[in-house]
Amino acid sequence: MRKPCCEKEGTNKGAWSKQEDQKLIDYIKSHGEGCWRSLPKAAGLHRCGKSCRLRWINYLRPDIKRGNFEQDEEDLIIKLHALLGNRWSLIAGRLPGRTDNEVKNYWNSHIRKKLIKMGIDPNNHRLNQIIPRPNPQNDCVSAAATSSGSMSNISACTKAPIKSSREIDQRASQATSVLEDETSGSSSRDLNLDLTIAFPNPPLQVEEEMQKNIKGSFTMAREIETTLQHSPTLALFR
DNA sequence: AAGCAGTCCAACCGCCCTTTG
DNA sequence: CCAAAGGGCGGTTGGACTGCT
């Protein structure tokens, strides 16, 4: 049996109080990040170290951008998800001020459903093989897939009559099962998506080197896009 | 106004990878 | 080289909130 990450007894769980937040902020301001295991004790917090880390990274960090995602951020998330899959930390690394948790939540609550309504499988970014029955409202699917514009076009296509989230999930699983054979071979997930594609919050001293990597990353991204030329969501950005 | 269903998001859990001794 | 510890990540959950009937 695996050892727990920290002592569970005597530690608080659930929502953080203002006092706890302040203690954590004060401690990190004076001591910096790191050594999360010993931090709670040193900071006088009755919390698990992991919980402190999460609270800091996802909520208390001063450079965090709060509020709604802008259209270009959404576009970028979709595009990066098509390239990287559910590697939220890598995707978040390309969105200044956004956290992996935030991106993940936004994907699951907004973008995923939006793609499904468009008839695009959010798992592999391909057009659903089970195209919803003939319906003028669904015309936007093919229109969007062939559009040269941005995802802004999607907003006009979100009125498809799907009644519940359960139905959305069913459609998604249907689509996935239909596409299984197709994707089991040389799917995008099998691509070698090396981690060099991401560069979260680079330290200043390595910026120059990062610039080189950026060039390389974009080259690689282009290659991957070529490989995924049948991906409707990628087509949206062309 | 009340009850219900759906949505959102902060936080937790457990696995995996990296580091350290 | 190996095992243990620490850190990071993605998946999932639960509760607060909102909108609809």
TrEMBL record:
Q: What is its main location?
A: nucleus
Q: Which SMART domains match?
A: SANT (SM00717)
Task: Extract the GO molecular function terms from the UniProt entry.
Answer: DNA binding
Q: Which SUPFAM superfamilies match?
A: Homeodomain-like
Name the domain of life. Eukaryota
List residues of the Myb-like domain: 8-60, 61-111
Cell compartment(s), UniProt: Nucleus
Using the record's annotation, list all stretches that form the HTH myb-type domain: 8-60, 61-115
For this record, the Gene Ontology CC terms, alphabetical, are: nucleus
- What are the UniProt keywords, alphabetically? DNA-binding, Nucleus, Repeat
Which Pfam families does the protein's record reference?
Myb_DNA-binding
- Protein name per UniProt: Myb-related protein 308-like
